[in-house]
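Readers of this paper often ask what the protein records in our data store actually look like. The remainder of this section carries one protein's record, kept here as part of the documentation.

:::
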Amino acid sequence: MSEKETFTKVDANGNNFDPLDMRNYSIEKLPNRQKSKVEQLMASFGAPIAILSFIALAFFVELPYLQSIDISSLQSDRAIEMFNEMGEEQFIRNNHYMLAIFAAAIILWLTAAIPNYQVSLILIISLVLTGVLPERVAYAQLGHPVMWLNIMSFVLASMLVATGVAKRFALWFILKFGKNAGSIFISFIAINTLLSAFISATTAKAAILLPIFMVIAAVYGADGGDKKTNFGRSIVLQNLLNINLGAGAFVTGSGANLLAAALISGAIEGNVYFSDWMFAMFPTMVGMMFIGYFVAMRIFFPLEKKEQKPQIKGGMKRLKDEYEKLGPISYQEIKTIVIFVLILALWATDRIHGVSATAVAFVGAIVALLPRYGIVEWNQVDIPWHLMLFSAGAYTLGAGFNYTDLPSLSVNAFFDSIGIGTETEFWMLYILLTGVMCFSALIFQSKTMRTMIFIPIAIGVAQRFDFSVVSLALPTAFMIEYVWVLYFNSKPAALLYETDRYDLKDAFKFGITMMIIGYILNIFLGETWFRWLGITPNGVFGIF
């Protein structure tokens, strides 16, 4: 595209369209992706298959390892307590119910036959009606500390949006450091990293950044459609990568990270601190972002000479105008920045002062919502309650696992059936568990669901082979955010696919390459950095 004075174009529908107007790239203006025929077929058969699976596993299929459970085979203290309280027969029956409910929920989640929050509601009441969990325990998961951390994090994130701090920071950084094509990409690495420390929803980060990098794409002539360019491919796919990698740098980066930490903390009767996760993963994920920059810019999407310069005259000025519309930084914005800096400082030092991340977020949210002296009002807070209900169902499932000890029983039965004893090398298990968590992202649609399936398995494997739960479960959890390969692997992936700046082939070759690099890096870190931190065996630092 040659330089031009006018910004107005005609879109595919014959309407005038300004490619430099950030309002044209808000989420509500992107078209909703229609389900493919395969997805529609899966949805139509999901519910019947789930019902049949539940009936079969609950009443007809007799799995040998669930027929003769004795107390010596149980790992969970809660399960041992329940075994003594209700007797062997009822305990075995409850394990059948637990397996049946788990299988039915997984089928419904995978096929998206009904909304995921509705699956969670069905799951919770099913665990109550079958007697697997007492009502108080099942319903109490909505009050889980991690749930409250999620809620308070959304309150805090709403401050960034309501006051314009997030938009101001992103625009300022781009205008200050984005002097050319290469520096623009590096600027987004910095922006994603900082926002990830405060925003625990990857979709929210995508919504904040999407209008900005789409305007930049237009400035550099990346119009999409039949005129896809390497600049357009790279700026969208690198942001998709960095949004997820940034989330993986902090335990508060996503609800799935928080869930994994809660499950591991419950198994070790201790805490996985914010600082523990950050020390292990912050340098790792930032390093991965720069590797992604190199892979995109040098291997898959090298920029032609003309792509390295703006194609629309005065295009960057439009971003500057957008920035200037925000006006001078306000008192409310300064208060927001101070609150966030204090929160991050307290989170990063939680091992020192002992105040939990949830308690810190609580105080921050209370200050933010104070009448007259606060920053946001309640009606400005955007809390996705459907995601909260979905998460509550996942935590209730975790409580069911704890009451029945189903993961440990299943893991032991599996290894016994294939003849693997307790002498298996740690690194074989490490490579297997982290690999399964990593590459399962190619087929699962929910990070929370992968967490609910594979973290309990990692815990069960560690207990069977008498390794530290942290040494296997935490590195497995570090692979949760690898959800950038295909459009259905995560909400940001689905959202950014609608920009039409890349196709599935582009996403797959870049995404699978970065996934493999990340997996290999995780193995290398298990022998080096994680050892030094004391996560994997023979560690020096002994954090855990």
About this structure: The chain has 24 helices and two strands. Residues 274-300 form the longest helix (27 residues).
